[in-house]
Amino acid sequence: MTDGIRLVMLGRQGAGKGTQAVRLAQHFVVPHISTGDMLRAAVATGTEFGLKAKSVMDGGGLVSDEIMVGIVDERLNADDTTSRGYILDGFPRTEAQALALEKITADRPLDIVLNLEVPEDVVLERITKRRVCKTCGHIYSVDAPPKNGWLCDIDGGEVVQREDDTVEAVRKRLDLYAAETLPLVAFYGDRGLLREVDGLGTPEAVFARLLEAVSTHQQV
Ligand code: ADP
Q1: Each residue's pLDDT tens digit, 22-75
Q2: Per-residue pLDDT reduced to its tens digit, 113-156
């Protein structure tokens, strides 16, 4: 088996971060930890917390740092992640979250942070075309739909548009990304952890670039 890895994926909404994070997790045989998926799972349970999170998410806002840090802290202390590592997707999204992550990972520091670069005009189009499986979260697009109607190729679940993928919510998420998350590129650059990867091209080409970035980083 390959060695594990502790990797953070940064990138604008719609940059293909989620799809590539799943591939990286399979490649390195580590869990894919997506805070967006964890929040959507909480929403699906219909708890009071889930309902609050849903209204924040549907409006394109950010769930509070305190809540997110608590969720991630718990997940990164589970056995599977402490033994082999993880691909962290959707966290950190603010400087406060990045500072909290440094504390959480003090004993087992991050190996690398990958920033998937895709220009804003391209991601707006990609997100509005995005469709997801309601049950397993697999991502499709209007341009690359499932084989059989709008039913997931993997588990037959219904493939729909996410409720926060409206033009207004996406604009708000992109503005918040620029204000809150983009500064993390410099934050991790200063720590010598960052690798920039061009996110344009086929998913296969982008994945090859991501693996290349990891292997050249590890040789340094
Ligand atoms: P996207 O990257 O396309 O916006 P995600 O699935 O990563 O989608 O996240 C969906 C929503 O979940 C976000 O818009 C936000 O409301 C919430 N969320 C996810 N991760 C975080 C986080 N680390 N901090 C705050 N809110 C988060």
Answers
A1: 999 999 999 999 999 999 999 999 889 899 999 999 988 999 999 999 999 999
A2: 999 999 988 888 888 899 999 999 999 999 999 999 999 999 99
Distances (CA, A) of 205 to 17, 30, 93, 117, 197: 14, 22, 26, 14, 11
3-state secondary structure of 6: strand
Which protein residue has the closest C-alpha to ligand 1 atom 9? 36
Active site residue 209: no
Residues spanned by the domain of 126 = 119-165
20, 95: one domain: yes
Task: Say which CATH number the domain at 27 has.
Answer: 3.40.50.300
Does the CB atom of residue 61 touch ligand 1 within 6 A?
Answer: yes
**60 Cα nearest atom in ligand 1:** 14
Q: Domains in the chain: how many in total?
A: 2
Asked about 17 being catalytic, the answer comes back as yes
- CB of residue 63 inside a 6 A radius of ligand 1: yes
Phi and psi for 71 in degrees, rounded to 5?
Answer: -60, -45
Closest protein CA for atom 13 of ligand 1: 57
What pTM was estimated for this model as a whole? 0.88
Residue partners of 55: CB distance under 8 A and separation at least 6 = none
Residue 174 domain-assigned (yes or no)? no
Indicate whether 59 and 96 sit together in one domain: yes
